[in-house]
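Appendix B. Extra example for self-study. Work through it before the problem class; the solution is given directly after the inputs so you can check yourself.
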Amino acid sequence: MTGKDTGVEIPAAWYSILADLPDYDPLERRPPSDLGPPADGPVRLSPQLPLTMYRQSVSRERHVPIPDEVRAHYERWRPTPLRRAREFEKYLDTPARIYYKHEGVSPSGSHKLNSALAQAYYYKKAGIQELATGTGAGQWGTALAMACRAFGLGCTVFMVRCSYDQKPQRRAIMEMFGARVVPSPSPLTRSGRAVLADDPDSPGSLSIAGSEGIQYAWEGTGRRYASGSAENHVLLHQTVIGQEAIAQMRRLGEFPDVVVAAIGAGSNFAGLAFPFYRESLDERRDTELVAVEPKACPKLTRGRYGWDHHDASGSMPMSKMYSLGHEFVPPVIHAGGLRYHGAAPVVSWMYHQKLMSAVAYGQREVFEAGLAFARTEHIVPAPESAHAIRCVVDRAAQARRTGRETVILFNLSGHGLLDLGAYQQYLDGSLPEDADFDDLVPAGGER
Amino acid sequence: MTGKDTGVEIPAAWYSILADLPDYDPLERRPPSDLGPPADGPVRLSPQLPLTMYRQSVSRERHVPIPDEVRAHYERWRPTPLRRAREFEKYLDTPARIYYKHEGVSPSGSHKLNSALAQAYYYKKAGIQELATGTGAGQWGTALAMACRAFGLGCTVFMVRCSYDQKPQRRAIMEMFGARVVPSPSPLTRSGRAVLADDPDSPGSLSIAGSEGIQYAWEGTGRRYASGSAENHVLLHQTVIGQEAIAQMRRLGEFPDVVVAAIGAGSNFAGLAFPFYRESLDERRDTELVAVEPKACPKLTRGRYGWDHHDASGSMPMSKMYSLGHEFVPPVIHAGGLRYHGAAPVVSWMYHQKLMSAVAYGQREVFEAGLAFARTEHIVPAPESAHAIRCVVDRAAQARRTGRETVILFNLSGHGLLDLGAYQQYLDGSLPEDADFDDLVPAGGER
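Solution. Structure tokens for the complete assembly:
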């Protein structure tokens, strides 16, 4: 059995990849533009995080214990199943063995709850009363709404307008859990007003919603901005995924040749891939780590590596990362969680060091793969997760050509039950063509 | 741990309650009106079921082995978790211990897949090429679409029009799995056309959709009508739920005082309650079995016990059952799965013999309970399941008044992730008042 009953344990600690990347400096940041022009060189900034979480984001300690209160919540659905996609393999007619880690079974429907609970716990302990955030497809917003409710915090979610319009059910579920949901750009904040003045019909973006969340948090007392990805501590919290997967694969006598995950800013990718980075070092295996991004927002394959802001208004510190520019507004695609202009600094660094690879796909080919997976494995994948599946399809075809029994593991980061409208569009043939990225960013990008 | 890791096994056999109800005659049927006027007395009819399944519907053998091919599918998500609702208990401030069986984790999102897979398997073996059916909220249609895909059968689903309009996502998911979805009443069938001639705006009902499914099946070759509830073999297939629950409760050293489940026609109720009927006989326990119905469609509490048709047009054989009349069109409520005029014959018989009880609730109080459960337990219940939860709230309050540590078990038959629009209406205050049943059925009913 490769499912829920593999008998592995929830890890006792999160895994910090910083311990294994001695040349990467997590303290290297530049101040936000609100604090004046960027300093001449890198400066060291302490963000407004609870001290424990700040330490998590910079510490080189390999194992960071998971607090009992957080672990007790994890026990409600973790360990998540690791399954072999046998019917999908048959459909793909491949000698590859395809496994997936099913994070869609979480109460919020995605991996995002792993970090939301940890953050709500630390902020609550630090005396904070309310968390604000930005959300794309709503997976992060839903997770934070649930986590805030679990730990007795208020929650305000700035939801990217195009997702707000596409997915009314997402708004409903966040409101069910007591969150206030505001379509972004909104007139509530300075940076929202600035975007609306420029373009009243702006579809929004994760970086705009992030700016709004930060500014809203700053303007009140007892409020903080909770980040759903990009930051080291968020990536850290997700490593329960990969650690469980290693134990589950081991029980099956398997080790992946390829580990695949979609990338928005990087929490889903890091959650699965980082522990395998360590493990492949230990096992002297040449495991490939692949991040999959949308062609509409190809920060790794088409972005530039350099200093940039995490949010549209430049209210957050600058990081060195792959980015399409913090003012880039990606075209509207259904995988709203991947519409982020940059990649997490540590993921960017690894990509720059060629410790991982990346590939980009268009929306239609992604939905085609997602539908094929749903029809064979009976799980509707979130559009974000369907990006990983699209890459798996290619790797499985490659295995067929070479006759190699490649072992592929991917992260099914969330279910797509609130994205059925998008699948209906694909079935109806009304899913729009992908925008041509070169038309959007004439300057292109370079690696 | 009271979750997925309780280490119990999927049962090897379904449990037939007919073995324990010697006075109930499963062969007692009257011919459909299409075959002429009802005979003077009960006649014995053999429906167009594959022989194995027909035997299942009438046999008094207590244990009916589950075929390996069906069990292999069950293994993908069964045993389903049995959980204690500790946070809900706290919220209700009750000494009662509340457990729930979580059937919402199935690939189709509800318990319905337990029977859909079994039926698709038997029909496929019998050489059938396509199954037709009627669905209310879409839970049965979704399950049948998945099961047909799994066993290589075509699938046509007549979906009650009000649900079709309320829940476009349900249509999408059925189409994803290759089913053809037709809003009912439709111009495709004789009985659909008759209803439309009478009322072009008819919201439809499960009994109309059932008539359409049957007539559609009759008019083609290699087609059969698959029933989602009411029939003995369907109830039988659902008994995996209760059998697992018994084993899971036993490992916790618990036995329920009250077993609660919503009732449409009875498959959800029977699935959980029937095995406990047997078990409480064995254990000499006075366990109460409670079926919960909507006030808008109160077949047990307000219906009449007598001969009636299962479908609106009278195309199916008549059964002796509690019914509001086969032509009754229930008012539109979100729990579309409960909008059925009658109760399964064997459930009706048990109710008539006072071997179980029943209670009815209004839509708003049901959503209030469903929302409270979602907020405390982080699972959005289907509106059907929220009926059971509403009853649990009352029993928990009773326990508080009496100070008794009542052990309550209910069936969380499905998740409500495709019903978020209904919860949004409740939150917005726009959920309609319940229709007054007495205005709908002036003749009332009697027990």
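Self-check: The radius of gyration of chain A is 20 Å. If your reasoning did not lead you there, revisit section 3.
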